[in-house]
Fold this protein.
Amino acid sequence: MLLIAVAVVAAIVVTLIVAGPSMQRSFFYPKARGLPPVVSQTTEELLARLQAVLETNAPIVARSLQPGLTDAQIAALEVQGGLRLSDDLRALYRWHNGITTNSAVGLLAGQRFVPLDEVVRERALVAQQVATGSAVQRSAFSVFAGHRTGWVQVLDDGAGDGYFYDPKRTDAEGAFFHHFAEMSYYVWFPSLRNFLAGIVECYESQAIKVAADGKSLDENFDRTEKIWSRFAKSSE
């Protein structure tokens, strides 16, 4: 059975290599379908609600957030990193530029809000590693991770998964999404606003709350899954 499984995997890999980038992207990075409606509140309104609920229900998270960036700072980082952020993402980084590196909490449980300057540095590092790799390494990266090249990692779970923004997709195509690579699992949002509305509801309903130790976050996954299902569409 093991040999059969290995043979099947090898056949899939060979097929993807021969098929080229288009089929590789559709296999590893499918298109979002059946997205829910975009929430009616503006990004600024949702960020104000989020700030208020964090200060009330999760002050440890509120204290970990870094000061926001100016429009000029965001524009400079976009140029430096070769990024093109949406207006909603620019508003997010004006609100706060991520969470400090030494924080024990994330914006969500196990999900650190990555500062934009750190995003730029990490993208440059990956590009350098790919460029200096062997031909075999570059080929493998192209097949298995080439679709991720342009992604902006907004929240990071510490293992390379998390929440991303793809400048090459429109909001209607699910430009903002959660990705868990090991399971090829996606959760697509029709707008960053839906994501923010979901976070607000998670904290307001106590589906995510400060743990008893006061140093981390607890999440009721059954409740958060129901919340996210109203604001986003999963690949399952």
The CA atoms of residues 72 and 78 lie 10 Å apart. The two ends are 27 Å apart (CA to CA).
